[in-house]
């Protein structure tokens, strides 16, 4: 019997993370504003009817040395105001192509950067604009990513008043020595008070983000952090593996290396040991590193094979719609493909002021790629691939689906032999252990994957 550690080490090969299909490195720079408008107009008639909105706020007041996100240090308040003006202009330019009468918003997500670090008046302006332009469903999921360094009672009450009902809190580690080590601001409030206030204000979902693999962390110290999290009982938890992105944050990476990073073995032990603690305390594992309480929508969706994933994370098929992204670096995920805005703040502002839209790159999916996307999404999220069901979506036979993805039983022999995958007639079913390496199984289903070179990071 092979254990979890052996499985992960055996399949630890470079590959895409499949947060999208095809992965973002396939996006084309020829894709422009006009291609995006065509995709928006098509999205009114094909694909999911409901609308998801993503708002990107790229500002932070201090940069954490581990950060791989698209973020800018506050330069001055005028820049923030200018950015918000552009966001509103962009929302108007995109919305005029959306059939807002026939379609409802079921999900709004604010990410960054640190959306809760900007002045409340900016958040209010954008929210009021969205409420005027769109029909927002009563029980829509309205979420915001927050750094606890800025959260106080006034902010919690303000966010509730604005309609937010889910809050994702970036804890990273409860150990303040580790936070100091990576140049991260400490929480303004003690964490037990913070979560109590959030609950009392009526937020229905609380998520905690953690990172393992930071300087100073050990298996024991990370376990302590996770035990404290379990005590505080958030609805969802995520343990991100610290990702080295030296091309984006060279100086920060150097700072961390100087202090000394945990070895890959220690990192793997942190992942496995925190996973055991979280699962033993009753959370349901979603994908590799997400966890949710059994009564959480994500756990129910996993059970009913209704789990979905977009760039903002896991969600249910009922909640998520086609995603319209606003702000620098944001990605729209529509039926016809993807469109990403200018990544740098200044370019984004310049183009919105001059051209109304600021598409930097994107991708138009062919019919065959749409089929592949459905195949990869299903295996990555729900761990099941039913060829007949995929065929039904696209009005083609199961055999045709297999032909499109260049399916070949031989590619899955190793997974079957290791009890990671079961193949029955026209279905692939990933086992519980198989979900630890589901990315590798997805790679075997991806006809476009170029396995040469290592432009991708390893599975773990
Ligand atoms: C945009 S940040 C969240 C909001 C807020 N800025 C904060 O830091 O609390 C999204 C999450 O990405 C994760 N993250 C950032 N850089 C990372 C890296 N290099 N490797 C792994 N996870 C990372 C962190 O867990 C962070 O909470
Ligand atoms: S982790 Fe969050 S707060 Fe820290 S720099 Fe990145 S986006 Fe900003």
What does this structure look like?
- The protein has 460 residues and is α/β, with parallel strands linked by helices.
- The chain has two domains: 31-364, pyruvate-formate lyase- activating enzyme; 367-445, Arc Repressor Mutant, subunit A (Orthogonal Bundle), CATH 1.10.10.920.
- The protein is built from 17 helices and 19 strands.
- It has a nine-stranded mixed beta sheet with strand order 9-10-8-7-6-5-4-1-13, with helices on both faces. Strands 14-15-16 form a three-stranded antiparallel beta sheet, covered by helices on one side.
- Helix 5 packs parallel to helix 7, helix 8 packs parallel to helix 10 (264-280) and helix 14 (387-394) packs across helix 15.
- The longest helix is centred in the N-terminal third of the chain and has 19 residues, at 77-95.
- The mean pLDDT is 93.
- Iron/sulfur cluster binds at residues 60, 63-64, 67, 69, 71, 112-114, 147, 170.
List the helices and strands and how they pair.
Layout: H1 4-10, H2 33-43, E1 51-57, E2 59-60, E3 72-73, H3 77-95, E4 104-112, H4 120-133, E5 135-146, H5 153-161, E6 166-172, H6 176-181, H7 191-201, E7 205-212, H8 219-232, E8 236-241, H9 250-259, H10 264-280, E9 284-286, E10 290-292, H11 297-303, E11 307-310, E12 313-316, E13 322-326, E14 331-334, E15 337-341, H12 345-355, E16 359-364, H13 367-382, E17 384-386, H14 387-394, H15 398-404, H16 413-417, E18 421-424, E19 427-430, H17 438-445
Parallel strand pairs: 1-4, 1-13, 2-3, 4-5, 5-6, 6-7, 7-8
Antiparallel strand pairs: 8-10, 9-10, 11-12, 14-15, 15-16, 17-19, 18-19
Helix pairs in contact: 3-4, 3-12, 5-7, 8-10, 13-17, 14-15
């Amino acid at each position: 019997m092979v254990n979890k550690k052996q499985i992960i080490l055996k399949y630890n090969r470079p590959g895409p993370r499949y947060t999208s299909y095809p992965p973002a490195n396939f996006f084309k720079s020829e894709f422009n504003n006009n291609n995006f408008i065509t995709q928006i107009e098509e999205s009114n008639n094909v694909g999911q009817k409901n609308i998801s909105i993503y708002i990107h706020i790229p500002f932070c007041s201090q940069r954490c040395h581990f950060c791989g996100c698209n973020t800018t240090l506050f330069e001055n308040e005028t820049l923030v105001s200018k950015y918000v003006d552009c966001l509103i202009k962009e929302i108007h330019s995109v919305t005029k192509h959306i059939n807002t009468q026939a379609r409802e918003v079921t999900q709004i997500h604010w990410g960054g950067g640190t959306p809760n670090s900007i002045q409340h008046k900016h958040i209010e302006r954008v929210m009021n604009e969205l409420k005027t332009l769109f029909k927002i469903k009563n029980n829509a999921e309205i979420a915001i990513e927050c750094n606890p360094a800025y959260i106080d009672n006034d902010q919690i009450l303000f966010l509730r008043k604005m309609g937010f009902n889910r809050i994702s809190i970036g804890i990273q580690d409860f150990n303040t020595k580790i936070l100091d080590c990576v140049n991260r601001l400490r929480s303004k409030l003690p964490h037990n008070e913070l979560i109590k206030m959030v609950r009392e204000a009526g937020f229905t979902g609380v998520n905690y983000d953690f990172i393992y693999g930071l300087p100073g962390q050990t298996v024991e110290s990370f376990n302590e952090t996770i035990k404290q999290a379990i005590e505080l009982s958030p609805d969802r938890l995520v343990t991100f593996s610290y990702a080295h992105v030296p091309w984006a944050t060279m100086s920060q990476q150097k700072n961390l290396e100087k202090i000394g990073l945990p070895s890959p073995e220690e990192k793997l032990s942190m992942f496995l040991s925190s996973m055991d603690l979280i699962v033993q305390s009753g959370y349901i594992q979603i994908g590799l590193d997400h966890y949710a309480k059994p009564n959480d929508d994500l756990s129910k969706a996993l059970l009913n094979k209704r789990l979905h994933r977009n760039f903002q994370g896991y969600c249910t098929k009922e909640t998520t719609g086609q995603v319209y992204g606003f702000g620098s670096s944001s990605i729209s995920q529509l039926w016809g493909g993807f469109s990403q805005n200018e990544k740098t703040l200044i370019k984004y502002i310049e183009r919105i002021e001059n051209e109304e839209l600021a598409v930097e790159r994107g991708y138009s999916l062919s019919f065959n790629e749409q089929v592949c996307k459905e195949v990869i999404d299903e295996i990555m999220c729900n761990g099941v691939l039913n060829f007949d069901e995929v065929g039904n979506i696209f009005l083609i036979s199961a055999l045709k689906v297999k032909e499109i993805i260049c399916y070949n039983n031989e590619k899955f022999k190793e997974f079957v032999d290791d009890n990671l995958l079961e193949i029955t007639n026209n279905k692939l079913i990933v086992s519980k252990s198989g979900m630890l390496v589901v990315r590798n199984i997805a790679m075997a289903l991806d006809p476009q994957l170029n396995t040469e070179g290592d432009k991708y990071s390893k599975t773990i």
